[in-house]
Amino acid sequence: MTHPHLAIDALPPLSWVPVEGEASVDQTTQTLTMRSAAGVDWTNDATGGEQQHQAASLAFVAPSGPFTLSANVSVIGDRTTFDAGALSIWSDKDHWAKLCFENSPDGEPMVVSVVTNTYSDDVNSQLVADAGIHLRLAFLGDDAWAFHSSTDGERWNFVRLFHLSIPAGQRIFVGFLSQAPLGDRCDAVFSDIRLRHSLLSDTRDGS
Questions:
Q1: Which residue in 152, 136, 15 sits closest to 87, CA to CA?
Q2: Which residue of 28, 114, 141, 149 has the smallest Cβ count within 10 Å?
Q3: What would the pLDDT profile of 60-108 be if each residue is shown by its tens digit?
Q4: Domain 4-196 in this protein, CATH class
């Protein structure tokens, strides 16, 4: 179900996957704020532990052709371990990915990415010195995706290139996620949201 009051001008209609969440949009600045529930995450434990898919993503149906989605991501207030604002890709509980501005166990904000083809492949990237970070996901075609981060939204640092084995004919949703696996909530803010319908031809040249 789409939510007109959560519309963002640059994006197609938005809906919640896989569960309903809490969010607001400042229509003047086109800034999205998402508040997670307590103890929510997406994880398919690589060691075979319990899965969890209780974090809510506000998302839209991914375009069929190559595109990029980017946003400046920050978190308001005190942070708990593993809380994050993230860009998300969701098809079903065994096929999803997220690019996170996450709080590490050492209390340091950093870029973290998770790619799930049945089991989750979790990778830490660079530490973030600023209050926020620009994150970008890119669909390259043929189930290939790329993640990037940037301090200024202009020059992009390579995070990872990966394949999601989406079952034929299954819809893919891309959007925004707030998680707080060990905390009471996470208030994530997404600004400077951009959707571009073009192929990212080189994933490693900073473009």
A1: 136
A2: 28
A3: 999 999 999 999 999 999 999 999 999 999 999 999 999 999 999 999 9
A4: mainly beta
